[in-house]
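[audit] Reproducing an earlier prediction to check determinism. Same input, same settings, fresh worker. If the tokens differ from the archived copy the diff job will pick it up downstream; this log only records the rerun itself.
[audit] input (457 residues):
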Amino acid sequence: MLRFIKFNLLLLLLPLALIGQDMPKTHTLTLPEVISLALDRNLLLQRSGIQVQLRENEVESEKADFKPNLTASAGVSARYAAVGRDPVWDDGSFTDSASGSLNSSLTLYRGDEQKASLEQAMSSLEASRKDLDRSQQQVLFQSVARYLEAILNLKAIDIQTEELATRLENLERIDFDYQNEIRILADVQRQKALVADSERRVAAANRAYENSLYLLKDLLLLPPRDEVVLDLDDSDWLEPENIGEPSIQESLARVFERPDLLAQHFRLTAAEQNIRIAESGKKLTLSANAGLRTSYSSRSSIGNFGEQYFKNSPDISGGLSVSVPIFDRRRTETSIVRARLQQDQEELDLQDLEQVAETDLRLAMLNFNTAKLQLKASQEQLSSAEIALEAEQARYDAGAATLLDVTTLQSTRLDAAVSVEESRFDLFVNRLDIAFQDGTIESFLLNQLNTNILGLE
């Protein structure tokens, strides 16, 4: 009976334990923490890291090609056979034998193929390392941009919620005046429409905020069910006056040292080595080999196992071999043509990448300067709209203005407030984009945030 009770208690507690394991967690994240998580968990960086390891393995393999190989073999056998015309089961004998060998070979010359293959592998390794560096910069930009997008949407919720509260308050006043026959029904309905519009805007802002959090969790590989809280206590780095002014000349000088451009240079070098590898098919191959062999047979009369195997039977051989290609059905020529075409392709890719890099940098500069002008204009618009709204509200309360005049200015002030926040974030993101385009995003973030970032030091 006691065992039955324990079994039922276990069945009851097991679902609770499983539910406890699946309970969502809450992550309170600052921007440095988001960056650290992205660098540690992002799949793109993990794939790039694996690619680097594969290239390192290829380099080790090519280095080993310069060393001799050594093969050891040993074998034993036993035989039972007849020694005459009588059946084997009447007149048979048992013999045993053993053999062993050591063989070594070394390629002395293969038309520069070995050296070119090693240099190609090393160039490919450096290209993969630079690709990893660029992937890290991409993840940095994406993580910061998505974090800022979530903050912007959170700010939009605050603005729209504040506007909703103001419109609800105005609705109460207008409805009170309507009940006292001071306002007409049209004013009440117009204000209700504005309240409904604010409720719609708040719902849209909440949806945009939740959507940005899902995108952020996807980038950080956090479970979608987990909650994310953005920590904005220390966000002085976002203030426009704390954003450094970029230098177009310095950025243009650095853009061609960007990791992805350097990676393309290494790929071009690898393509050049591939031509050498293809051309080596026309040249001779020189190899050296050496061998040590020994054996033992019970049928031999020259001694026992030790004497035969270690004294009488061992023999040593060595030699050189040369092979010269004469006719290979034009395989070498076609390989050379393919290698040269691949080199041409890499050169075109490099030219295209350089063109795109400079264009993107200049566009980032243009967007940054435009964001500064937009921020200034939005701030002036907001200031003017608030002053005008305050004056128009006073005129409305005195009966000298219409509700339409007030609501029009309220909409103008709301749009200006949203525009100011968007311009502030655009200014930082565009400055970040400049650092991303000229390849200095790591140092920019360290200087801007003025704190240690795990994985970025």
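[audit] rerun output stored. Observation attached for the diff report: The domain at 32-64+110-284+324-449 is CATH 1.20.1600.10 (Outer membrane efflux proteins (OEP)).
[audit] end
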